[in-house]
Amino acid sequence: MVKECGMKLLELIQKAPVTCSGNITLFPTSTFFPVRYNLFQYYFKPGGGKHFNVTFGRSVALHFWNKMSKNKTVKVNSNSVYEVAAKRFCPITYRTATTHSNVF
To answer: Considering the entire predicted model, what is its pTM?
Structure first.
């Protein structure tokens, strides 16, 4: 990236998103990791999905930090970020996982 863009990495990161020659784009980390690992519990907080579009509108991925969140359960209708994302982007899986259970 430094060679293609002619800037130091720190400059690139501060200006992200940046598109350089060769049609290479450097995105800010929030595009892929909108929630830092030490705040991963935000994804599971009841009611946290209320502002999903505002909070995650510019993100293209959500990383749930599996090593830390693998034992988390989500209550159906808790409106957590995790539940909102599951309903929106994985509706068949969500429906299957919640058909006979009030947690998933």
So the answer is: 0.82
